[in-house]
Amino acid sequence: MVADEAIAESLCFVSPQECAALISRERPIVLLRRRPDVNLAEAVSPGNPATGVMLPCTPMHDLLFRILRERWNTEPALIMTSGNISEEPIVIDNAEAEERLAGIADAFVHHNRRIHTRVDDSVVRVVSARTMPIRRARGYAPQPVFLGRGEAEVLACGAQQKNTLCLTRAGFAIPSQHLGDLENFETLRFFQETLERMARLFHVTPTAVAYDLHPGYLSSQFALGLPNLKKIGVQHHHAHIASCMAEHQIDGQVIGVAWDGTGFGTDGTIWGGEFLAAGYLGFERYARLRPVLLPGGDSGVREPWRVARSYLLDTFGAIPDDPRWRAMAAPERLRVVDTMLAKKINTIPTSSAGRLFDAVASLIGLRHTVSFEGQAAMMLEAAATEYSSTDPYEFSLITKSPMDIELRPMIHQILAGVEAGEPQTRLAARFHATLVAVIAEVCRRMRADFQLNRVCLSGGCFQNALLLEGCLDTLRSDGFEVFSHREVPANDGGISLGQAAIACEQLRSLSS
Question: What is the rounded average pLDDT of the residues 306-320?
């Protein structure tokens, strides 16, 4: 946090659109590219050229900067973080703060105004001169989104990660603020508190509840446990595309490109690199990234080297005996994972684009383990932005239902580049160029097969500015009408809006 936009510009490159976001009444955190000679500690955003910057959003912040300016005779940049333990909701009670945060904070400044609602800071990024939400919370929520899909009052429970809930009333959808990952009792209680408050505030009495098909999600279990409500299950990636359609008020069918880390598929596998011909009432899965095995479930998310070894085995039939691959992890851990992959023990097929990003980041030596979600993919994007225009790698499309996108030629070429000592920046840039080429080619085929020309891009992978801008430019130059997120996040924070739109359309079609 800095005192004003002039100080922000001394630390980072700030475009007019980014400056407008910084000084807006919403006062979000804006992801900005650091100036190369700036005196900011590397630990602020390690391995990432972007830094989140925000301006004061309360009078207390202004007072703090005034005191520090007078005492130090300088303009400080302060590291701000939420008042909570990782994976738990923000603490809003003074006594609870002193108890739960005593091991984190050296001092407490209490306020005599009660906090009624836990709300995180919003996070945005400017892509192609448009502001894109990464986390929609303070300042933006609960701003309604017009649906116009009937008068039904619906509760949509969202996904497991980056959870939001959504209520509908009088043709409008009302998404909640970012609630976090529903992984423990504390966050589930926060979910329930938010639902009760929003239902009371907006006078909503749901008659139906929409939920993700994943049986392990706490949000889905909560929905299925609600009595006397019609239950509407919605496939994860269908909800992604519907969320993009809803915020742009699109009717009919679209070409939906849903790329993310994890989503439960209708075939019981993990999806995440999907091309759908989709409308609110249904979808057809046209193409996918050809599945590979994900070893160890969530461990594969925290340790990209696991997915990298899966791609090595998938590409070569055996993992090459090379010092690079032996250095990924301890020998015993490598042996265990290789056995899992060879014997298909504790593995599940996945078409996930997010895991592909992780695998490539590991294969080119950027990151074998991560400390937070998306870290390896962020480093891959950061590396790619340092290399100018480049050609894509080879890939092929295997005609079947759904079509498989064959990327083993690309993996071969990436590893040849690693062997030849090519810069990581070039390898990362060519990887991104390949994904843009894949998306453009599949969309062309879908246009020919379905006579559709509108493309909706959704899923967490489209928070990647390089991927998103490449797709927008390439598809639009090819005559497509392309839509991306501007109201709700492309990540799972937008899932509840998509679920709500699908549920409302289903209820409207049943009543007509």
Answer: 95
